[in-house]
Amino acid sequence: MRFRPEQHLRRQSDFRVIREQGRRVNCGSFTLWGLRRAASPSPAPAEPAEPAAGAPAAEPAPSAKTSARRVGVVASTVAVGHAVRRNRAKRRLREIFRRHQEEVPVGCDVLLSARAAAVDAPMPELEHKFVDACRKVFSPKNA
Protein backbone atom coordinates (compact mmCIF):
# COMPACT_ATOMS: atom_id res chain seq x y z
CA MET A 1 0.00 0.00 0.00
CA ARG A 2 1.08 3.53 -0.66
CA PHE A 3 2.05 5.97 2.10
CA ARG A 4 -0.17 8.98 1.35
CA PRO A 5 0.41 12.60 2.48
CA GLU A 6 -2.66 12.60 4.74
CA GLN A 7 -1.06 9.77 6.70
CA HIS A 8 1.85 11.94 7.89
CA LEU A 9 1.71 13.45 11.36
CA ARG A 10 3.20 16.92 11.08
CA ARG A 11 2.01 19.11 13.94
CA GLN A 12 3.88 19.14 17.24
CA SER A 13 0.53 19.21 19.06
CA ASP A 14 -0.39 15.83 17.50
CA PHE A 15 2.91 14.33 18.65
CA ARG A 16 2.37 15.70 22.17
CA VAL A 17 -1.19 14.31 22.43
CA ILE A 18 -0.05 10.85 21.33
CA ARG A 19 2.81 10.83 23.86
CA GLU A 20 0.58 12.05 26.71
CA GLN A 21 -2.58 10.04 26.05
CA GLY A 22 -1.46 7.07 23.95
CA ARG A 23 -0.33 3.61 24.94
CA ARG A 24 3.40 2.90 24.71
CA VAL A 25 5.24 -0.31 23.85
CA ASN A 26 9.03 -0.61 24.04
CA CYS A 27 10.24 -2.66 21.08
CA GLY A 28 13.98 -2.44 21.72
CA SER A 29 14.97 -0.84 18.40
CA PHE A 30 12.15 1.68 18.62
CA THR A 31 9.27 2.74 20.84
CA LEU A 32 5.71 2.70 19.51
CA TRP A 33 2.94 4.92 20.87
CA GLY A 34 -0.60 4.34 19.63
CA LEU A 35 -3.75 6.37 20.11
CA ARG A 36 -7.28 6.09 18.75
CA ARG A 37 -8.48 9.50 17.61
CA ALA A 38 -11.77 10.69 19.06
CA ALA A 39 -14.47 11.15 16.44
CA SER A 40 -14.97 14.86 16.03
CA PRO A 41 -18.61 15.82 16.40
CA SER A 42 -20.05 17.32 13.26
CA PRO A 43 -21.65 20.72 13.79
CA ALA A 44 -25.43 20.56 13.58
CA PRO A 45 -26.95 23.10 11.19
CA ALA A 46 -29.45 25.57 12.67
CA GLU A 47 -31.98 24.81 9.94
CA PRO A 48 -31.82 22.17 7.26
CA ALA A 49 -30.79 23.78 4.00
CA GLU A 50 -32.83 22.85 0.97
CA PRO A 51 -30.96 21.93 -2.18
CA ALA A 52 -31.38 24.02 -5.27
CA ALA A 53 -34.05 22.92 -7.74
CA GLY A 54 -32.90 19.81 -9.57
CA ALA A 55 -29.75 19.41 -7.46
CA PRO A 56 -29.31 16.23 -5.43
CA ALA A 57 -28.93 16.54 -1.66
CA ALA A 58 -25.27 16.58 -0.70
CA GLU A 59 -24.05 14.04 1.82
CA PRO A 60 -21.07 14.92 3.96
CA ALA A 61 -18.02 13.01 2.81
CA PRO A 62 -15.94 11.26 5.46
CA SER A 63 -12.97 13.39 6.35
CA ALA A 64 -9.59 12.00 5.34
CA LYS A 65 -8.24 13.31 8.64
CA THR A 66 -10.55 11.09 10.71
CA SER A 67 -10.43 8.00 8.51
CA ALA A 68 -6.71 7.70 7.74
CA ARG A 69 -4.15 5.79 9.72
CA ARG A 70 -1.46 8.34 10.53
CA VAL A 71 2.17 7.95 11.55
CA GLY A 72 4.91 10.18 12.84
CA VAL A 73 8.55 9.11 13.04
CA VAL A 74 11.10 10.66 15.39
CA ALA A 75 14.85 10.02 15.54
CA SER A 76 16.96 12.19 17.82
CA THR A 77 20.69 12.79 17.56
CA VAL A 78 21.19 11.53 21.12
CA ALA A 79 19.29 8.27 20.56
CA VAL A 80 20.34 7.41 17.00
CA GLY A 81 23.38 9.44 15.96
CA HIS A 82 24.34 11.77 13.15
CA ALA A 83 22.06 12.81 10.27
CA VAL A 84 22.78 9.87 7.97
CA ARG A 85 21.88 7.35 10.68
CA ARG A 86 18.78 9.33 11.76
CA ASN A 87 17.47 9.54 8.20
CA ARG A 88 18.11 5.84 7.58
CA ALA A 89 16.28 4.90 10.79
CA LYS A 90 13.29 7.08 9.85
CA ARG A 91 13.17 5.65 6.29
CA ARG A 92 13.19 2.11 7.65
CA LEU A 93 10.43 2.77 10.18
CA ARG A 94 8.25 4.55 7.60
CA GLU A 95 8.67 1.58 5.25
CA ILE A 96 7.64 -0.84 8.00
CA PHE A 97 4.51 1.23 8.63
CA ARG A 98 3.78 1.34 4.90
CA ARG A 99 4.03 -2.45 4.59
CA HIS A 100 2.02 -3.24 7.73
CA GLN A 101 -0.41 -0.33 8.05
CA GLU A 102 -3.36 -2.72 7.99
CA GLU A 103 -2.30 -3.72 11.55
CA VAL A 104 -3.27 -0.20 12.68
CA PRO A 105 -7.05 0.34 12.89
CA VAL A 106 -8.59 3.11 10.81
CA GLY A 107 -8.75 6.38 12.74
CA CYS A 108 -5.65 5.69 14.83
CA ASP A 109 -2.32 7.46 15.14
CA VAL A 110 1.09 5.84 15.60
CA LEU A 111 4.27 7.51 16.79
CA LEU A 112 7.55 5.67 16.24
CA SER A 113 10.63 6.84 18.13
CA ALA A 114 13.83 5.32 16.70
CA ARG A 115 16.83 4.11 18.65
CA ALA A 116 20.34 3.31 17.41
CA ALA A 117 19.48 -0.36 16.86
CA ALA A 118 16.82 0.60 14.28
CA VAL A 119 19.60 1.36 11.80
CA ASP A 120 21.38 -1.99 12.02
CA ALA A 121 18.62 -4.45 12.95
CA PRO A 122 17.36 -6.77 10.20
CA MET A 123 14.13 -5.58 8.58
CA PRO A 124 12.19 -8.83 9.26
CA GLU A 125 12.98 -8.45 12.97
CA LEU A 126 11.79 -4.82 12.99
CA GLU A 127 8.63 -5.78 11.09
CA HIS A 128 7.86 -8.56 13.57
CA LYS A 129 8.31 -6.17 16.51
CA PHE A 130 6.06 -3.57 14.84
CA VAL A 131 3.25 -6.07 14.22
CA ASP A 132 3.46 -7.41 17.80
CA ALA A 133 3.42 -3.90 19.25
CA CYS A 134 0.40 -2.92 17.14
CA ARG A 135 -1.49 -5.98 18.35
CA LYS A 136 -0.71 -5.06 21.97
CA VAL A 137 -1.64 -1.39 21.64
CA PHE A 138 -4.73 -1.74 19.45
CA SER A 139 -6.18 -5.01 20.76
CA PRO A 140 -9.97 -4.89 21.39
CA LYS A 141 -9.54 -5.40 25.14
CA ASN A 142 -7.56 -2.11 25.27
CA ALA A 143 -10.22 -0.07 23.47
TrEMBL record:
The Low complexity compositionally biased stretches are 49-64
Q: Name one GO biological process term.
A: tRNA 5'-leader removal
Q: What is its EC number?
A: 3.1.26.5
TM ranges: none
Q: Which UniProt keywords apply?
A: Endonuclease, Hydrolase, Nuclease, RNA-binding, tRNA processing
- HAMAP family, per the entry: RNase_P
What NCBIfam families does UniProt report for this protein, alphabetically? Answer: rnpA
Q: Which family does it belong to?
A: Belongs to the RnpA family.
- Assembly with partners or alone: Consists of a catalytic RNA component (M1 or rnpB) and a protein subunit.
Q: What does this protein do?
A: RNaseP catalyzes the removal of the 5'-leader sequence from pre-tRNA to produce the mature 5'-terminus. It can also cleave other RNA substrates such as 4.5S RNA. The protein component plays an auxiliary but essential role in vivo by binding to the 5'-leader sequence and broadening the substrate specificity of the ribozyme.
Name used for this protein in its record: Ribonuclease P protein component
Q: Which organism is it from?
A: Opitutus terrae (strain DSM 11246 / JCM 15787 / PB90-1)
Q: Which gene is annotated as encoding this protein in its UniProt record?
A: rnpA
